[in-house]
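Reviewer comment 2.1 asked that we show a complete input and output for one of the modelled complexes. We chose the nicotinamide-adenine-dinucleotide case, as it is the one discussed in the main text.
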Amino acid sequence: MKILVTGGAGFIGANFVYYELNNHREDEIVCLDKLTYAGNLETLTAAFSNPKFKFYKADICDREEIERIFDAEKFDVVVNFAAESHVDRSIENPEIFLKTNIIGTQVLMDASRKFNVKRFHQVSTDEVYGDLPLDRPDLFFTESTPLKTSSPYSSSKAGADLLVNAYHRTYGLPTTISRCSNNYGPYQFPEKLIPLMIANALENKPLPVYGEGINVRDWLYVEDHCKAIDLIIRKGKVGEVYNIGGHNEMRNIDIVKLIIKELNKSEDLIVHIEDRKGHDMRYAIDPTKIHNELGWLPETKFADGIIKTIKWYLDNKVWWENIISGEYKNYYDKAYKERIEKAK
Ligand code: NAD
Ligand code: TYD
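Response of the prediction step:
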């Protein structure tokens, strides 16, 4: 089988490339990535030495180039990870989110139709369901929870999901969609909560917690997400949506304190800064469907996964230090400097 992985130089896409190369040695993996600020070829260094792996630098919105690649490669399966993925950036500049996340998905689906792809899998997010109240721990997102988004990011992902369903119903494109909760693990860009807190703590920099830090996210180790997608593309039912999550809800402030403790740092580093606009309170996935239909269960407990992740960032300092010394520094200063000053 030949699988196209778009966005494979990013966090989850790269982990998926390695998961496939390690677990399905017979399959060919082609990665296509625009290499935006979030894409990093260094992440794929080990994959390049595998003869079953190939890479294209391309934009999923570039119809001509995408068709040329589909024509040349004749993919069996397309897994679309490529996206603008950071909520805070979407609040500052929504447009690129609409382009990449919606138009890019459409271009990929058109090419999938034209070149008879057998499965188009859209990697979506639990954020399309909006948020849940903190005082209703009995509520969870199921696949039939209505889409009700909060941020430009989640709205663009929901737009893409609707379009995927339309391509299935209207044109019979064999699609599946997965909606996963927050991921953590190796190769996550240090603008996201967990790697940002690890990197800042290691450098004794302030740890910027939005508001009181009582927002809840449902954390899943990235390899468990990859395993779920792998099951869906091989055994999932066409036209279906699968929620992915491991019932691991944590408040942001508790995650930050745990990282501080593991790194032997002081809680004095915590700074409560002005909250994110429209900040979702709680995400919580009900994974009953994927468990019952495909037998998926998460393997890595948070207590182990977070230690593995911290160790990975300690062992791979060069990887993230290269990132935070580049363009990211401008983003960080713009996003945080004033808010941290104000909070002091
Ligand atoms: P990421 O930002 O780390 O990586 C995104 C990748 O897509 C980068 O390599 C980037 O260069 C590439 N890309 C961006 N625009 C592109 C374009 N126009 N053409 C080609 N490539 C492009 O993101 P991530 O955290 O790995 O997320 C991957 C997918 O999983 C996204 O679709 C996201 O919505 C979804 N998701 C993420 C999480 C999470 O916790 N990170 C949870 C659920 C779902
Ligand atoms: P993030 O990693 O951006 O993921 P998402 O917003 O997609 O869930 O943020 C996770 C949570 O951490 C979210 O509630 C916002 C919060 N947060 C902070 O408190 N400080 C930060 O510097 C960042 C990046 C996030």
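The chain has 13 helices and 13 strands. We note this here for comparison with the apo prediction described in Section 3.2.
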